[in-house]
Amino acid sequence: MKSTLGAGRPGFLWAAPAAVFFGLFAIVPLLMVAVLSFASWDGLSDPEFAGLDNWKKLLDDPVMIKSLWLSVLLTLLGVVVQTPLSILLGVWAAGHQRNRAVLSAIYFVPMLLSIAAVSVLWRAVLDPNFGVPAQATWLFGDGNLFGMQSSAIGVLVFVSTWQFTPLHTLIYQGAARAVPQVLYQAAQIDGAGTVRQFFHITLPQLRNSIITSMILMVVGGLTTFDTVLILTQGGPGSDTTISAYYMYQKAFKSFDYGAASAIALLLVLVSTLISLIVVRLSGYDKMRSTMEGL
């Protein structure tokens, strides 16, 4: 029988197909965007080198500054709302009772729908003329939830939570089921109740998953586009014009692909920076165990 003690990690050739795919469809386009961010291009004529003009215009553009802050705000609201909700639902769904399995299957249905389909659905449901708000003016006032910045932002946060919470719930469900049961058994012997077990055993054991989930939320929140395009079109005015949507306006309405590329590169840098800060502050980069939370 051949010994496996000397077996090491698979060679680079095993990762070569994925590396080539990632290089062609991620690294190369990113480099092209970086180059275009220093050029002036309308999409038809040849690009012309513009130096830092695109970046200077963005820094002096009040709409751009506002869109960046709106992107950060929507991302923070998404993290604050979705994280506790996902943790609670994930831990609950980790149970093995039949009713939990059925309800979890129904709850995960939004994961099967595209962002565009979900946005169109909620746009119809929340339509100020024919939707639910128009029939319940006692609750929604004039029924136009898209007419004020606060309510429009609330709609965007709600729709994103409705669609993406199941994904993060699934992450926490798998992590919660991986927690060693011996920890709960020891806690029961010591007289710890369900609430105390959750805060002193379950939550600490989910630390790795919480960081992973938060990074996904940050990257997804800063790059979201479809929801704003279909639900609010950046309105009212520019009150929900986030950076990704402003990039779309620059590229496909103003035909200023240089400025749009600069916005895209800026989003990549901001997303990367925030993700690194989260990893650094959480100590996630120092964890070496392959077991969740240990």
UniProtKB/TrEMBL annotation:
GO terms for cellular component: plasma membrane. Coiled coil: none annotated. The chain crosses the membrane at residues 12-39, 68-93, 105-125, 145-164, 210-231, 257-279. It is found in: Cell membrane. Keywords: Cell membrane, Membrane, Transmembrane, Transmembrane helix, Transport. Residues 68-278 form the ABC transmembrane type-1 domain. Pfam families: BPD_transp_1. Belongs to the binding-protein-dependent transport system permease family. This is ABC transporter.
